[in-house]
Amino acid sequence: MSNFETLGLDPSWSSKLKKIGITTPTPIQTIAIPEILKQSDVIAEAQTGSGKTFAFLLPILQNIDILSPVIQALVLVPTRELAIQITEEAKKLTDDLGINVLSIYGGQDLQSQFKKLNHTVHMIIATPGRLMDHLDRETIDLSKVTTFVLDEADQMLVMGFRNDIDKIIYIGKFKAQILCFSATIDAKVKKLAYKYMKNPVILSAHSDTKPLDVIEQQVVMVSDRWKMEALLKALDETNPFLGIIFCRTKVRADKLESEMKRLKYTCEKLHSDITQNKRQRIMRQFKDAKFQYLITTDVASRGIDVTGITHIYNYDMPESVEIYVHRVGRTGRMGEDGMAITFVTPKDEDMLKDIEGRLGVSVSKSTHEHQK
Ligand code: ADP
Ligand code: MG
């Protein structure tokens, strides 16, 4: 089973989480926590209720230096209700650790906030308006902040906090890792994020990543030499309604396509050397089930959302766990079942271990024997 430790969190967090009934990371937690621990800037999209709060709280809390009496993390949220809610979640995890979390929002008594700020505060969860007050009065020093979170970024923009965010980053004078969490990432959110982020990693567990447990996942161990034979055998055995075959490179996609066409499979390839017009035509035909197999690379397959894709074939091993999740998430849409078959050669076995460890998927393994 996948757990919080395999994501890079200390075991003490899992036992705290277990006490509040949480044992298995959600998809957005699975993909975001390792990136945040690596100090990457992250844009993360996942629907409401998908566990975004712990996705950023856990790595932040793990990185806080308790002995350093300065504000190290700032979470900006659109409403006071959310500030209270996140502060409560954080307190559940930090109660006995000596990490001090303070919420700052309008309507609270300023005097009592000043008093609390005179004690050590490691992390602040704030609404923009009240935080601006404190920055103007110089009652809060953000210069030592190392992680800055914009939660519900889409909501913040709708509510007109754009200028406040700019000012807070400007007045706060911090150089921090920036995390942007949102239920939807549209062009406006991206524009805001890119203004301040360095090469952000974009993670999505929206419609892109189904809960992987509805998808049956299989592995076929095979040598490089007999890989194509193993694939063709799997195609014949599974005979999908629609299937996607993922290749590592364009050249490999080209080669596979010509071989499959020669053997009279109905298939088309989609990769970045193919003109936009042709790509659109191919996608339309695929949606209409005019051919059975789409052969593609990871770049070309971004955002494919077609119902009726019953099978995913990882002809070549994905290069990361995220890519595996993206590929496999093309099937099992709209509550349908789906199946993913991954062809694993000896050099891919480390990546397979990573995938199994991080996702807690139980894959059934078989070995392809060359057919004489
Ligand atoms: P979001 O911010 O994505 O809308 P929240 O972070 O508020 O969602 O989480 C929604 C609910 O799910 C909360 O009650 C939270 O305690 C719970 N939750 C978070 N992570 C997990 C998990 N790994 N397993 C089960 N429940 C979880
Ligand atoms: Mg949330």
Feature tags:
Rossmann fold; 7-stranded parallel beta sheet; 14 helices; binds adenosine-5'-diphosphate; binds magnesium ion
Give a written overview of the molecule.
The protein has 372 residues and is of the alpha/beta class. It folds into 2 domains: 11-204, 3-Layer(aba) Sandwich (Rossmann fold), CATH 3.40.50.300; 211-371, 3-Layer(aba) Sandwich (Rossmann fold), CATH 3.40.50.300. Helices cover 40% and strands 18% of the residues. The protein has 14 helices and 14 strands. The strands form 2 sheets. A 7-stranded parallel β-sheet has the order 3-4-2-5-6-1-7, with helices on both faces. Strands 10-11-9-12-13-8-14 form a 7-stranded parallel β-sheet, with helices on both faces. Helix 2 (27-37) packs parallel to helix 3, helix 3 packs across helix 4 and helix 6 (128-137) runs parallel beside helix 8 (162-172). The longest helix has 15 residues, at 80-94. The protein starts with 10 loop residues before the first helix and ends in a 5-residue tail after the last strand. The mean pLDDT is 89. Magnesium ion (MG) binds next to helix 3.
Short synopsis of the structure:
By secondary structure, the protein is α/β, with parallel strands linked by helices. The chain has helices at 11-19, 27-37, 52-63, 80-94, 110-118, 128-137, 153-158, 162-172, 187-196, 227-238, 250-262, 276-287, 321-328, 349-359; strands at 42-45, 73-76, 101-104, 123-126, 147-150, 177-182, 201-204, 215-221, 242-246, 267-270, 293-296, 309-314, 338-344, 364-367.
CATH homologous superfamily (4th level) name of the largest domain: P-loop containing nucleotide triphosphate hydrolases
- CATH fold label of the largest domain: Rossmann fold
Number of domains: 2
Task: Tell how many strands the DSSP assignment holds.
Answer: 14
